[in-house]
Amino acid sequence: MPAEFPIRSRSGGHAIRNILDWEHFAGPVSGDQWADGYSALELARCWLENEPINDLRSILDLVPELSTFTPELGVPEAKSSFDAYRVGVTASLGSTATA
Question: How far apart are alpha carbons 93 and 91 in whole angstroms?
Answer without folding.
Answer: 5
